[in-house]
From TrEMBL:
The lineage of its organism: Bacteria, Bacillati, Bacillota, Bacilli, Bacillales. It comes from the Bacteria. This is Barstar (barnase inhibitor) domain-containing protein.
Amino acid sequence: MIEIIYDASTLEGSCYIEVLPDKYKGECWNTSSIFFTEENFGYIMPAFEKCYKKFDYYAFNEIDIETWKLIIWELEKMKQYLSDNPTPHSLKDILGFPFVYSEEEFLGNYDTNFKQLISMITEFQSWINEKSVSAKFISVLGM
């Protein structure tokens, strides 16, 4: 399932990307955070790499709100591309596929996956916009 995880208590193991509405303060699995599986975050990772040149998948990235506006716009372009019913094999030009099998798995259930991905992106954009009102930074805590 391509979705955002809101409850840290449901996580199994530690292979998740945490998005924290604040600067990193030495603690992970914050109750105010949202979480993505590696795979689900991988789909949208090109937006981060394009808009935040210092992005490091394995580090704690403290991203200012102005940069998040660029990321939101890049996610919107990604969503629009998906909404335009692209050929499945053109997706690797837009989405990130973090594992060798990721693209094949995504394409294996294409109709459901692309709808879920659009929904996840929309939900993420809303969450970012909501948190941007009170936070000066939103951090992506990598692996």
